[in-house]
Amino acid sequence: MPSSDAIFFPNSATATHLLTHPLQSPMRILIADDESIIRMGLKSILQELGHEVLTAVNGREALEMARRHHPDLAILDIKMPYTDGLQAAKVLARSQPLPILLLTAFSEQDLIDKATDLPIHGYLIKPIKPE
């Protein structure tokens, strides 16, 4: 399971279950991050666990991918061009509710506060490393 130096879960039971319990069938997971090394690293880890992984380079692309492919889980970087992860999470929560994890290199309190106001399942601080 990937680990992070800091993990905040507003809905800890659900988020912990999502991250630690293998499912009967693979999940379709959408990863949106403008940093290719993070995006490809997470994709590799999740594919090794048997999941189908979709990737997007910004929030706008993530929303389009979600509309077309109906993922089971979205992992969204907070700071991305065009549509950021916070905006994308708001739209996803309204249009097609699904578990959302926010990912960022920033541990600024205002971002954490904004994230906790959203219907998300977790907030992870980069770097994320496989254990």
UniProtKB/TrEMBL annotation:
GO terms for biological process: phosphorelay signal transduction system. InterPro entries: Bact_response_regulator, CheY-like_superfamily, Sig_transdc_resp-reg_receiver. The keyword Phosphoprotein applies. Residues 28-131 form the Response regulatory domain. Signal peptide: none annotated. The keyword Phosphoprotein applies. SMART domains: REC. Keywords: Phosphoprotein. This is Response regulatory domain-containing protein. Transmembrane segments: none annotated. PANTHER family: REGULATORY PROTEIN, STRESS RESPONSE REGULATOR PROTEIN 1.
